[in-house]
Amino acid sequence: MSSPAALPRGNAPDALSVLNSVFGLPAFRGAQEEIVRHVTDGGNCLVLMPTGGGKSLCYQLPSLLREGCGIVVSPLIALMRDQVAGLLEAGVNAAVLNSTLSFDEASEVERRLLAGDLDLLYVAPERLLTPRCLSLLGQANIALFAIDEAHCVSQWGHDFRPEYIGLSVIAERFPDVPRIALTATADEMTRKEIVTRLGLTGAPSFISSFDRPNIRYEIVEKQNAPAQLKAFIVERHAGDAGIVYCLSRAKVEDTAEALTSAGIPALPYHAGLDASVRARNQDRFINEDGIVIVATIAFGMGIDKPDVRFVAHLDLPKSIEAYYQETGRAGRDGKPSSAWMAYGLTDIVQQRRMIDESTGSDAFKRVSIGKLDALVALAETAGCRRSRLLGYFGEAVTGTNCGNCDNCLSPPQLRDGKISAQKLLSCAYRTGQRFGAMHLIDVLVGRMTEKVTQFGHDKLSVFGIGGELNEKQWRAVIRQLVAMGHLRADSEAFNALKLTESARGVLRGETEIMLREAAPGTRIRSSRAKSRRGDLAPRTEARPAHAPLQAALRAWRSEIARQRNVPAYVVLHDSTLDGIAAVRPATLNELRNIPGIGDKKLEHYGDKLLTVVRAADA
Ligand code: ADP
Ligand code: ZN
């Protein structure tokens, strides 16, 4: 058997002691323990956990506990590299087998596998499917197969990878080796496809809640988006790493430039950039502290950076699925993080136009519009955003107040908007349903513009009947009527606002309309502020961290990361540094008790860390 270097020899180790000695963690999280036990005992299963939920340990631990080497199939080369670097740091014998290796390097990995020298081997799917690799695996002692990002087998999903279809060969060739499929994609159809294609019929599914309690959701009304973004970063996330999503390449460039000139280190990323520039910007984002990457949705898949503190959207994503996936890249380490979006009427109109103008079938367009509507409803809701989000994925939510979204922290004022809605709809109707928001507002507030004169709209009964609201408030009314489906922007007629079937009920006074007041005065200050959910903050944050020590620890970590040529979080996670800064350990024993410090890390870095602590205390 392979005797993992990281494990004490002799007695068979149990899961908890390996969790502690190798990974430096005191306890399992959620379903991890059950999954680890099931797979270690030789069972197959499907694991559904949100990003950051802790999927890796579900196959890493059984690989260490079972005889032989765990084979991990992963489609993402960068992710494999970082995982292996992290495992090596923890003293686990891990390696990769993919196209980045030379022939000699690959041969050496193969030799070690056959010699029983490896605990974990990460393999790219196309590599695994080669006859050479299958025959190699046939000769090796294999602990388990883990198929990561298992949703890639789904032809209907967004990340379909043809090589994944071929992975059914694993169940055929190695029926007695346990298989564990893992994904963060929740929907029912994908789940069924994974089960069929990977031969998991009858095996249990371990489904965790998709809630990301450490992420604070916030959706603001778009006014001056670049200025709002700057304020958001400066006030709430100064010095933090974050991702800003924009729809177009031009906007990516402009936004990155604007942030840079405001003193925020920002880099652009989109498909139009030279591949080398893209790679360099991505590397800097991953390896350096506090870089903001401004990107199109081309960025993110396979980014495993655990300490992304915020994800900001300057444009509306296409669906709740996309919003959840993109915002989910924040806070994988479980620490407080923000999902912030600025959105306005033009966003809805723009997305609608993109759907209308796409070449998809009518059925496709109908589905797309339904998905967009659901997202707009999330953006407009006056209720808890988290409940909406989880409800969309079919997850029942206990309680109605999550305490960690903008609407729960600062409930919006609602008012009876029946009269305003009627005025607005009448105005659109009387002007012939040929005009956009701007003109309708001019007519309502009684502004004599050229267009008003030209069309004689000052003679209409609706002219000047809306003086009680200002322009911004009328915009909010229009946006909400569009979101509710009473008004529709016609992309074939220069986005003229037209009444829908349901508008009649509003005009006749049969439909109740509650509107949120435009831009509540209260601002959410800091996502670091203590949340009402007590379980959010890791225990190590109970004491305030010592700031100079924190800075010194980061500087030390950067230096080590540079020397070893690995990302900083591979050396030690932020939460571990924060733990050290809070506890200020004086002895190796105290240091060992901080989550994230396992035996190997203690051996490698223990003395140096204590020196850093002593120097900061001096
Ligand atoms: P996923 O693959 O599900 O996105 P990871 O396996 O990368 O998530 O884990 C996310 C983060 O959670 C990592 O920083 C990891 O160290 C941490 N983590 C996982 N399990 C535990 C645990 N039992 N206790 C503390 N931290 C954990
Ligand atoms: Zn909430």
Report the span from N to C terminus: 49 Å
Radius of gyration: 27 Å
Structural class call reads alpha/beta
Largest sheet: 7 strands, parallel
- Name the beta content range: 5-15%
CATH class of the largest domain: Alpha Beta
Helix content: 40-55%
What name is given to the CATH topology of the largest domain? Rossmann fold
Tell me the name of the CATH homologous superfamily of the largest domain.
Answer: P-loop containing nucleotide triphosphate hydrolases
How many β strands by DSSP?
17
The pLDDT mean sits at: 88
Choose one word for the global shape.
Answer: globular
Do you know the CATH architecture of the largest domain? 3-Layer(aba) Sandwich
What compounds sit in this structure?
A: adenosine-5'-diphosphate, zinc ion
- Summed up, the domain count is 4
Task: Extract low-pLDDT stretches.
Answer: 1-10, 520-542
Give the helix/strand layout.
Layout: H1 15-23, H2 32-40, E1 45-48, H3 56-65, E2 69-73, H4 77-89, E3 94-97, H5 103-114, E4 120-123, H6 125-128, H7 131-139, E5 142-147, H8 162-165, H9 168-173, E6 179-183, H10 188-197, E7 205-207, E8 215-221, H11 225-236, E9 242-245, H12 249-261, E10 266-269, H13 275-287, E11 292-295, E12 310-313, H14 320-327, E13 337-343, H15 345-357, H16 362-380, H17 385-392, H18 406-409, E14 414-416, H19 418-430, H20 437-445, H21 450-455, H22 471-484, E15 487-490, E16 496-499, H23 503-507, E17 514-516, H24 547-564, H25 568-571, H26 574-583, H27 588-592, H28 599-617
Parallel strand pairs: 1-6, 1-7, 2-4, 2-5, 3-4, 5-6, 8-13, 9-11, 9-12, 10-11, 12-13
Antiparallel strand pairs: 14-17, 15-16
